[in-house]
Amino acid sequence: MALVAALEADLRALSAEARRRYPAVKDGAEHAILKLRSSSSARDLSSNEDILRIFLMACGVRNTKLSVLGLSCLQKLISHDAVEPSSLKEILDTLKDHSEMAEENIQLKTLQTILIIFQSRLHPETEDNMVLGLSICLRLLDNNRLPSVYNTAAATFRQAVAMIFDQVVSAESLPMSKFGSSSQTARTGSVTGDLSQNINSSESLEKDVISGRSTMRDTLSETGKLGLRLLEDLTASAAGGSAAWLHVTSLPRTFSLELIEFVLSNYISVFKILLPYEQVLRHQICSLLMTSLRTSSELEGEMVEPYFRRLVLRSVAHIIRLYSSSLITECEVFLNMLVKATFLDLPLWHRILVLEILRGFCVEARTLRILFQNFDMNPKNTNVVESMVKALARVVSSIQFQETSEESLAAVAGMFSSKAKGIEWILDNDASSAAVLVASEAHAITLAIEGLLGVVFTVATLTDEAVDIGELESPRYEHHPTSDYYTGKTSHLCISMVDSLWLTILDAFSLILSRSQGEAIVLEILKGYQAFTQACGVLHAVEPLNSFLASLCKFTIVLPTDAERKSFSSLVQSPVSKRSEVQVDQKDVIVLTPKNVQALRTLFNIAHRLHNVLGPSWVLVLETLAALDRVIHSPHSTTQEIATAVPKLTREPSRQYADFSILSSLNSQLFESSALMHVSAVKSLLSALHMLSHQSMTETSGSVSSAASKKIGSINFSVDRMISVLVNNLHRVELLWDQVVGHFLELAEHSNQNLRNLALDALDQSISAVLSSEQFGEYPPRSRDATLDVESKSTELKSVECAVLSSLKALYFSAQKADVRVGSLKILLHVLERCGEKLYYSWPGILEMLRSVADASEKDVATLGFQSLRVIMSDGLSTLPADCLHVCIDVTGAYSAQKTDLNISLTAIGLLWTLTDFVAKGLHHESLMEKGSGFNNVDTTPQQTNAEGVEDSDKPDYEARIQVVNHEKLLFLVFSLIQKLVDDERPEVRNSAVRTFFQILGSHGNKLSKKMWEDCLWNYIFPMLDGASHKAATSSKDEWQGKEIGTRGGKAVHMLIHHSRNTAQKQWDETFVLVLGGIARLFRSYFPLLESLPNFWSGWESLLAFVKNSIFNGSKEVSLAAINCLQTAVVSHCVKGNLQLRYLNSVMDVYELVFQKSSSYTGDTASKVKQEILHGLGELYVQSLQMFDDKMYMQLLGIIDLAIKQAIISSENFETEFGHVPPVLRHVLEILPSLGPPEHLSSMWLILLREFLHYLPRVDSALPNEEGETEQSTIGHRASSEVSKHKANSSSDKTIPTTRITSKMFAEKLIPALVELLLRAPAVEKYILFGEVIQNLRRCMMTRRDNPDGSLWKVAAEGFNRLLVEDVKICSVGDDTDLKISKTARVRIWKEIGDVYEIFLVGYCGRALSSNSLPAAALKANENLEMALLDGLGDIILKSTVDAPREVLERLVLTLDRCASRTCSLPIETVELMPAHCSRFSLKCLQKLFSLSSSETENWHTTRAEVSRISIITLMERCESILSKFLSDENNLDNRPIPTARLEEIIFALQELDRLTIHPEAASVLPLQPYLKTILREDNRDTRSHLLVLFPSLCEIVLSRETRVRELVQVLLRAVATELGLEKVSLSS
């Protein structure tokens, strides 16, 4: 055991120390060591008295060392409870003896032992032992002058007193309420921190006392009595008397007072529960303190020290703080004395002590609450709290009377700043007495300010407590005060405190805030403002609330004085600035100091906190915010941080506007938070904004000064904030809308233009914000009762939507100024553009408004209204209710008919088309019904209905039927509007209406029923046609003058109008044309449907009558449109085979009638009409040729014949003047290729071709009809006669002759078409006409003699060549069986062909005919044509399998030979005069003879063999003649050169002879000896036997002078040798 070991060591040391001088002690120590070894615990040690005895013996010898060892061992034993309580008296006596010893260490050891005794179980319980123990401490405290002993004795006594009262609490079973040894709570960094700390301490203290508190007891335990006697002695000592119970004559008063203060502050329950203690407190302690508080008292001739005064004040503070509830009178006296001390002429330190005490009361919410309840709220007592607050305020206000007020204020600000930073404000060490005085005064003022702040925060804290316990409603929720609203204890307390103290606090705060500039103190004061104002708001204390708000607002924005303006002006102006620089208006310069900024922030905090309870007080706040808004947006406003002499360009905008940005954000957030406010609070806010704006409106009405602009700024602020409130309260907009918009409408009627614009913009933003919110455009959420929810949501949306849009409507109709009406329409346009798809219930009002706008005379108004209508048509039709569609149509019609703006009318008509597109979607139901039941079988009789009106199974069909009916009515409503517009006097409008009408029918005609089509035809289409026709016929033909656009030279200048539109009749003609074009488009798309309608034929006949009348009496455009109308109707559907023949015949009759009346129908219009008819006939025939019969075809040819004759007769000089075919004939030529008869009308080919052959130049004499032709052409002649008869009967024009009428130009264009037709004709008809065509072509070709420069012969030659080349099979033997053509007829045709070739090639080709000096290109073209004819004859006809007789073939070959002989047949003298093309033609013919004789072909047939036999003989003769003629000419010319033509001819002949190889059949006819033929044939060397025939001639010409001729002859001779096999014969062999 450690204790035993330590004691044994101490005993050995004790034995060693006492060995010489104190043997008894030595022996006792050794004996105790032996005893100690037998002890193992503290209990064993306490039962062994010998151990304690040896230590007491050691102390008793009064030796210093032994006493120290002995006391140390005693301390160990006592602390380990190893001493019996019965030994206490002996121990205390020993200690008493040691206390009389002079050694310091002995005295300290004694005090330590005393303290250990009080802390151990040996704690004195008897009065003697208690007095003995305490007296030892007091003796050492009183007699010893050593500081260490004195301090230790004082500390020991204090601890002993504390342990005694702890024992009292324990013995009396009292709650422990000790919260600290310090009697003053340390100050924190702010008053709010002090307040919260004291609140926590006080609350815990009160809870402990109340938890253990019972009824007061007047009986005490022994321990309690000891404590009471001790307290009485301490009180007596503090009062300067003797401590009788402690047997001490005197104690230091301060020491006694310290102990009393300690006991009062730490053992509250003792005084609150034990009556004897409470009596001592009331009668003795309070009496002591009251006496001590006397300012002029002197006790025993001794001046009262500051420390003692501090102790007295602290004790008084404890009594007031802790025992005021039981010591009412005493505390009242104390408080009055304290308050009185603040304004008495006392030392400054004394007043500071008092202020510290008062500050402590103020910052403790519990203390202040109890004081106010016990005194101020009790009529029997004085208002001590009010007095205390006034005293503090008086201290604060005293600063304005001090000479050093500025220095004091600076010191106060420094103290607050230091406190905010958590450091202590200290004067400099070398500070003067004046500085110390200023600091002391500042300290006093600081304590007073903090005390007032503590009161404010206490009120705020108590108010929050009342809210927490439910006595008051939180400002976050709406609360309407009732009669029992303030019945709660805490709430009543708060109201009483506010009513009693607010004015005093406000005066003090406003004074300090106005004089102070330090940031920390300003923040603290503003916190007080905020706290108290918020408390007033929660308590609904209107007057204090408004007063504090008004005071606070004064510090937010302060207009500068003249001196400040000058100062600022000097700062912002640079010393070197130029005079021309614009100076800032000093009146507009506003500088926001940090105090202003903080005050504004405080105001924002208050407004955020109290937004639900401010009510009318909002006006004060809003006036300040309006001023702030002007400052923020003013270019001359700034903050104090940058209002320094800094060059303008060096200032940082971010720093300059940092505060403004923050304030602007706070300003916006305040109104954004209105979403959290109750509706009544929001209404109060709006009312305040309205009031602010209304005040400014009143002041603005008659003013034009700068003040008026400020008022307008206030109005602008109010309007903007109203919008902000509305935007942030869209979830309950219905409750606020009327209040907000009512003010906007009021502004809209103001005389100031700017205010009207402001109101319109605000209304626009408000409506758009509401309609763009989430509650619109969404289906209401479903819940358990979905139907009720949907109905409720719909009702709410309807109410809101109608309220929002009705305001716009009311603004328009009530507006007296045009700009307001324009603005309201702009708003409507914006609404429709942004939110049109969300509207539903307000459409009737909108459409009514737009309908009234259509009749407006102002162009701007009408334009804006129409823009809104366009938006509806573009995007809003799908959301438009069904019952509003007819209204929408009516509105659109109104805009179409208005006369203000033409463009609006035109665009509105287009919108009608858009609207019908939408309406036509509903007609789809009808088409479904038609498919199921047909047009005429729709049962419109309602079926048997049930209780709901319609049978369940048929309900969808019934609803669909109702829908169809509605859409039909809507569609016809549109048609009725358009029909009215067609009669409009403005051509642009009626033309647009016509286009739109037919476009609608064209787009949606497939959705219309037959009944609807009938209505359209008879009620709209034909009346429209009749009206347009009548107007076109009866309108004025007077020319219009265009709109006057100015003057020049005093004369009016008019806009030019095109000649085609410069009369009313021409304008109506255009409308008529559009109607006809629309009908044509309808016929193209829906003619089969229309044809099936009843009485359509009568309508068709009416249309034919209109067309005839238009053709003969109308303008060119009308006539062409009428023709196109008929043409489109029949052409579009005849190709499909679904057109009745009578419609086609009726059109043909109309066309024929036009040409029959040629005598009365002339001019340019007639020409255009005829051209159009011809073009239409061609198209009509192509599309409907399967529908034509003989009669119709002959009628077609008759019409064309009439057209040709009329054109030729009426255009005799046209070709001469213009050099081309007249337009009518040109159209005839264009359609001619398409007039070929179909297969079922093949006999009409003869009629067609012979009809057009009449327009070619006539042959001199008709060829005789030979045998076999009559039978084949009987049908053709009969048909031709019938056509002639039809033409004679149908022609009513007696001026047209029956003889042939021709035109050369027409013939030139006609020949290629006829050739093309003949090539396409069937074989039989083609062969019948072949001879006639050849004859006509021959006649045309022979015109080359008389007109070599003309084109007719060329065209005929080309046609002739093409006819033979491309149709050479017509002459082949292979087709003989198919065609059944007689041999005689074939011979006749070939003879005719031979005649053409012989006459044209021999007589007109290759000759130097007279010409008007044609250009080289034309000559070359003529030569190419001649060569083409030769190519066709030589390469195709004579080499094909034609059935031409031999005599014809010989004639054709002879023709080629005659042409080839021209060069050599001419005398040598004239050869040189022959043109080059003649020589080339002759050589070409010679080349064709060589080609025909050659065997170089794969297709060798009988005709080819026959031609080869004929041509080889002719060729040999021609070559013989060329050789002999050349030899003769060469001999006659002697040394003169041979003509080039003659030389080229012989060279060409020799070269071709060398290349020529002949067929054996051709070789067989050569004039050679039979044996030679046999030899050559056997050796297969007969392919060049033609050289043997010419051998003699070759031998003669071998001696020619021409080298080239000799060389070629040598080649041929070698070839002869080769042919005879002589190249192998030699002399050597």
TrEMBL record:
Keywords: Protein transport, Transport
GO biological process, one term: protein transport
Domain Mon2/Sec7/BIG1-like dimerisation and cyclophilin-binding: 3-169
Annotated Mon2 C-terminal domain residues: 875-1130, 1270-1557
SUPFAM superfamilies the UniProt entry points to: ARM repeat
Region feature Disordered, mapped onto this chain: 934-953, 1264-1295
Domain called Mon2/Sec7/BIG1-like HUS: residue spans: 244-384
KW Protein transport (keyword) present: yes
Polar residues bias (residue ranges): 934-947
PANTHER family assigned to the protein according to its UniProt record, in alphabetical order: ARM REPEAT SUPERFAMILY PROTEIN, NUMOD3 MOTIF FAMILY PROTEIN, EXPRESSED
Name of the protein described by the UniProt record: Uncharacterized protein LOC108812514 isoform X2
Protein's organism: Raphanus sativus (Radish)
